[in-house]
Amino acid sequence: MTATGAGPRVIGMIGGMSWESSALYYRLANELVRERLGGLHSARLVLSSVDFADIERCQAAGEWTQAGELLAAAARGVEAAGAELLLLCTNTMHKVADQVQDAVGIPLLHLADVTADAVTAAGLDTVGLLGTAFTMEQDFYRDRLTRHGLRVLVPPADDRAEVHRVIYEELALGVVRERSREAYRAVIQRLVEAGARGVLLSCTEIELLVGPDDSPVPVFPTTRLHVEAAVAAALAD
């Protein structure tokens, strides 16, 4: 489907991974459109929310192609419903971003590209990466960032394990604990001591726990950056 010129382009969102962060995507999109257009304006969007339990089982089993098939089907659904650009509302599942993009004819706005653009615009070249273990330890996300000229630091193994645990056992369930916030602050501090000049909050749920006040260097909230880029693209014409 192509834009009709009747208004902003329709944003397609594939969410549910987890729905806690997808709710933030939805809220931010509507707030940003209202800020840009004023009055009673809200975002034109189509949201497909998958069952995260199905995706998590694929992650744990290493069945990434199967997970990609589930998300590709969701992408085809939002395209058929009128979406004109696509957001995959999860950093981790950008591992299958190419599989999802290949399933549709509308452009997928890649989260790592949006994030790298923000870091570059801030004049930084060395960043720490927080996310799920998959995002921190595998190449699909880090390599995409390094292609933009960034140096990417990840926490040591024990810190990676704790960051991952908090995401899956707490944040994805809507649980926000002060002791976990303190643990993240300590991880961030160690990344800064290792040379990070900024920190990427590269799991959509992390923004539910920490923000700029929790870091001595700039943080880059990937959910907000992703939505800001989508709204800018939707309103560009």
TrEMBL record:
Gene3D superfamilies: 3.40.50.1860. The keyword Isomerase applies. Keywords: Isomerase. GO terms for molecular function: amino-acid racemase activity. Belongs to the aspartate/glutamate racemases family. This is Aspartate racemase. It comes from Modestobacter roseus.
